Amino acid sequence: KICFVVDRSASMLGTFSRVCQNLKSSVGSLRQDQYFDVVFFGDGQIADFGQKRLLRASDKRTAAANEFIDSMKQKGTTDAETALIYAMTIKDSSGNGPQLIYFLTDGLDLNGNDNDISLLIENKRKTLAPSTIINTIGFQAEPADRKQLEAIAKRSGGKFVNID
Q: Which residue from 49, 129, 131, 149 has the highest number of Cβ atoms inside 10 Å of its Cβ?
């Protein structure tokens, strides 16, 4: 059970199309016994393919997910915390949440904020989705963002990768 959470904010310029291509490849490689959802965030809005549900991967659903991914346009600012918390509330038809969240972004819009966003995310994860692992993928992330993305992953038992 996998949920992909993808930044579509304006700051992803130059990276977004490559991210979408790789995302479509990942969705296309899901087995029919896996469940998934794809969530995009940007400009204070969430676009959710599964409409708050983890869906069984099938040829028809992965094709529809690819169309959904192709329809996404970049806009606005980043609101990463809201998107991650939203993903933790997504369930399958039996009420089970995602086992893995892949969080893809170029940053967290920290704006000099010294608060530990990773701790906030971890506290929410413990409450909403305690068994969920969050893997974070940064795209040319600034050092402060990189530090937070790495901590988010580490606190949940996940991995962080930065792509320059």
A: 149
Q: Decide: helix, strand or coil at residue 19.
A: helix
Q: What tens digit of pLDDT does each residue of 32-52 get?
A: 999 999 999 998 899 999 999
Of the CA atoms within 13 Å of residue 96, those in its CB half-sphere come to: 13
Report the C-alpha gap between 84 and 90 in whole angstroms. 10
Once rounded to an integer, what is the mean pLDDT over residues 62-74?
97
Q: What is the pLDDT of residue 110?
A: 59
Q: How far is CA 158 from CA 63, 128, 132, 161, in A?
A: 28, 17, 9, 10
In angstroms, how far is CA 130 from the centroid of its own chain?
A: 17
Question: What phi and psi, each to the nearest 5 degrees, are found at residue 72?
Answer: -75, 135
Q: Measure CA 140 to chain center.
A: 16
Average pLDDT, integer, range 41-65: 96
Q: 36 to each of 41, 47, 61, 85, 135, how far by Cα in Å?
A: 17, 14, 10, 16, 15
